[in-house]
Amino acid sequence: MNMLRVGIVGCGEVVQIIHLPSLYQLGEKFRVTAVCDVSRTVVDAVGEAAGVTARYQDYHELVTQDDVDVVLVTNPNAYHTEVTLAAIAAGKHVLVEKPMCFTLREVEAISDASQRAGVLVQVGYMRRYAPAFVEACRLVKQMGEIRAAHVRDVIGHNALIIGQTARVVRGTDIPAHIIEEGKARQQAALRDAIGDASPALQLAYGFMLGLSTHDLSAMRELLGLPKRVVYAAQRHGIYLTAAFDYGDFICTFDTGVDNIPRFDARLEVFGADQVIRVLYDTPYVRHLPTRLVVTSANHGRGVSHETMLPDWCDPFVAEWNAFYDSIQAGTQPKTGPEDFGADLELFQAMIRLLRAQESD
User: pLDDT value at position 1?
Assistant: First the structure.
């Protein structure tokens, strides 16, 4: 096997809890050779834990390092585009955590740059690589007429789970001016994406980019692109509902975050005599299984329920395996830049409906 050398930009909780253990598990395919974070405390702690001596606080130094083949981009969202483009310019493949960017203009820039450079960009939609989800996609194609669908993601704050299950080194040494710059970057990116908007709309778009992009990306792969957004509504800031028109059926969507330490995320497809469900658990506890549940009419003898666990592979490990295979084969990842752009188009349609409600 060809070993791929990984440089990591942004060493926060998702790297410490998930990506580093996943890469260690795949040690025959990947080796971490460089790490970067604006916090010296964090980058030294992660570098020490990973046995990496190349530690940077400026990502420009990392992406140009000779012994880096792949750059993992996990720093704050507003910086994803510039780090991704810098890594592409340096000839590196990129796995960028969602959201890849904020605007369709950035999608086009990243797509064009990666094609010119001959490198691959994969967006971190790990739920779509879960074996149970992949199997669900196969079964939905076979189920015949779809009558309805439902996407749900109501979860407790991540900190409620992380605090009980993991140790995360935090960057308490980040200078105040860098923190303020990050906030300004986020606000500028939101303005660029949705123009002058109320704080409620800004919050909604940021939430779509953060959590909802997982759900609607999976919906698109499972069901295809909807014809239109029928309605969208926002309550309590980050509680969103929507309905997507697929012609022969409607897919409803609801999401929100509360103070209950649990993870209720699912996709459901309802046919005439079968229901297919994909049930996700928190990604912050590794190897919690994604389950596939099929409920069927049992030919006049009641109802049958089949719960499937196709594989114990953690979705993040499956995601890294798929990225490795794409690089080796030179094939585009299914969650590439253009695929991410389809999410932004849905989000923009939802924002237009929410904005119209504000002006009523």
Answer: 63
| Pair of tokens at residue 187 | 């606000």
Instruction: Please give the span between the terminal C-alpha atoms of the chain, in angstroms, as a whole number.
Output: 60
Report DSSP state, residue 260: S
Q: How does residue 197 score in pLDDT terms, banded at 50, 70 and 90? A: very high
d(CA 273, CA 293): 14
Joined tokens for residue 153: 């993601």
For 10-22, the pLDDT digits (tens) are 999 999 999 999 9
Distance CA 310, CA 290 (A): 9
- Do 43 and 152 share a domain, yes or no? no
Residues 14 and 133 in one domain: no
**pLDDT per position as a tens digit, 135-189:** 999 999 999 999 999 999 999 999 999 999 999 999 999 999 999 999 999 999 9
Q: What angle do CA 193, 111, 229 make, to 5 degrees?
A: 45
Are 284 and 350 contained in the same domain?
Answer: yes
Same domain, 163 and 200: yes
pTM beyond cutoff 0.90: yes
The two tokens of residue 36 are 């970067």
* CATH number of the domain bearing residue 164: 3.30.360.10
The CATH number of whichever domain residue 64 belongs to comes to 3.40.50.720
* 211 shares its domain with 294: yes
Question: What is the tally of structural domains in the chain?
Answer: 2
| Pairing assessment for the beta strands 70-73 and 55-56 based on DSSP bridges | unpaired
What is the band of 100 on the pLDDT scale with cuts at 50, 70, 90?
Answer: very high
Q: Collapse the DSSP code of 56 into the 3-class scheme (helix H, G, I; strand E, B; otherwise coil) and give the result.
A: strand
Cα gap 307→162, rounded to integer Å:
28
Residue with tokens 């794409």, as numbered in its chain: 326
DSSP result, 82-102 = HHHHHHHHTT-EEEEESPS-S
How confident is the model over 251-304, as pLDDT tens digits? 999 999 999 999 999 999 999 999 999 999 999 999 999 999 999 998 778 899
> Do 296 and 351 belong together in one domain?
yes
Determine what percent of the chain falls in helix, strand and coil, rounding each to the nearest 5: 45, 25, 30
- Where in the sequence is the domain holding 308, given as residue range(s)? 128-312+342-359
